[in-house]
Amino acid sequence: MIRHSFMALILTLFAGHTAEVYAAPNMLLQCLAKEEERLHKKEQQNALFRLNQEFVNELASSNDINLKKNYVDQICSSRDFTPSVGLLRLLLIKEHELYDLSLSGVDASMRPFKMGYINEFQKQVPRMFIQYLAGLQSELATPDCLEKAIPELSGFSEKIKYLEEELSTHQLITQKNKIETVFNKLKNFDSIKKNCAIIAKKRLNALKKKQNSQL
Would you give the DSSP letter of residue 24? Predict the structure, then answer.
């Protein structure tokens, strides 16, 4: 995927601002670009940064992904989720309902290609979700911390990993209530991270105590 600098992205945002069909994706790109800038200022190269980069690169390199304006507004104005996380959440929960599929401004000969691109993009969403979760887990002090804090994650990664070749994308993400619960619990990720560090410290102290007792 082509990498875009922040300034190049801004130019992309406004290059086609007069065309109504580009209004929603440009607004979404602008939200994602602002999020990217904030992450750069904080020098955060974490799971959120990588998720943001994947969405920015995907949307900036194609005009085929158009979301309904009400969902773009929801993503950009949310106080619960950053734009990248909010977009990922809605892609998982709403799926094709999220997209503007009117195609009124698209040439008839190009519509199958546009729909094909959207379908291929949507198929990548479960992978993005799993990679994001894996990235969050890597930021924690113990390897089992995230699943202990969010039991709903148990088995989900394995299901994606081993069954994705046999199941459709839709089948893999049918448990919408569970996905919603996961995102709601991820709102408290900072607390999960702190608690995990405490648990890791206790485990280390217990191990040292055991080792000392054996001397």
Answer: H
The residue whose two tokens read 């993005």 is 128
Q: How confident is the model at residue 212 (pLDDT cuts 50, 70, 90)?
A: confident
User: Do you know the residue count of the chain?
Assistant: 215
Residue-wise pLDDT tens digits, 50-79: 999 999 998 888 777 889 999 999 999 999
Which amino acid, one-letter code, is at 195?
N
CA pair distance 192, 188, nearest whole angstrom: 6
Neighbours of 179 (CB within 10 A): 18
Domain map (residue ranges) of the chain:
1-123, 140-215
- Return the axis-axis angle of helices 176-186 and 83-93, rounded to nearest 10°: 170
CA distance 167 to 160: 9
Cβ pair 176, 205 in contact under 8 A? no
Q: Could you give the C-alpha distances from 177 to 28, 82, 126, 205, in angstroms and in order?
A: 25, 20, 15, 39
Burial class of 182 by CB neighbour count within 10 A (0 to 12, 13 to 18, 19+): buried
Stated pTM of the model:
0.80
Contact 83, 75 (CB under 8 A): yes
pLDDT tens digit string along 95-146? 989 998 876 666 777 778 888 888 889 888 988 998 999 999 999 998 889 9
What is the four-CA torsion angle of 7, 1, 67, 183, rounded to 10 degrees? Answer: -100
